[in-house]
Amino acid sequence: MTKEEILNAIKTNNFKITPQRELIINIMLDTQGYLSVKEIYEKVKKSFPQVSLDTVYRNLSLLKDINVLSETTIGNNIMYEIHKDMHDHIMKCIKCGKVYELNICPLDLCINKLDDFEIVDHKIEITGYCKNCKKTIGGSHS
């Protein structure tokens, strides 16, 4: 989604474009992949030191409800990213916590074997060690 599409979605749903809301949108547009609520809150606080965590939560919830943001849970963290028309899958490093997008859908490999089931949505989360963390722990883990 572009910023223009996002702002249009907010207006179409009869919500105001507040400075905090616009900053959250800019933060999300400048980020590849997912951000946690805490990460978003810390970035918003730099421009609006008085902002409450509750305000950030409310804005994220609103943006999710109007399909501007996608929400997923990674471990114990609720994570957000700009909504995409296609679903995506992630790989998460269990040492540093960095999240990477998996640019393929593993389900595509077996979709033709699921004749008796209509899939409407799915999520795939793969955990392991990123390239940098694998070097620091030595050896490989299976």
TrEMBL record:
Q: Which InterPro entries match?
A: FUR (IPR002481), Fur_C (IPR043135), WH-like_DNA-bd_sf (IPR036388), WH_DNA-bd_sf (IPR036390)
Record key words, sorted: DNA-binding, Iron, Metal-binding, Repressor, Transcription, Transcription regulation, Zinc
Single GO MF annotation: zinc ion binding
Where Zn(2+) binds, per the record, is at 93, 96, 130, 133
Q: What is this protein called?
A: Transcriptional repressor
Biological process terms from the Gene Ontology for this record are: negative regulation of DNA-templated transcription; regulation of secondary metabolite biosynthetic process
Q: Which residues bind Fe cation?
A: 88, 122
The cofactor note reads: Binds 1 zinc ion per subunit. Binds 1 Mn(2+) or Fe(2+) ion per subunit.
Reported cofactor(s):
Zn(2+); Mn(2+); Fe(2+)
Family as reported in the entry's similarity comment: Belongs to the Fur family.
What domain of life does the UniProt record list for this protein's source? Bacteria
Q: Which Gene3D superfamilies match?
A: 3.30.1490.190, Winged helix-like DNA-binding domain superfamily/Winged helix DNA-binding domain
Cite the Pfam families for this sequence. Answer: FUR
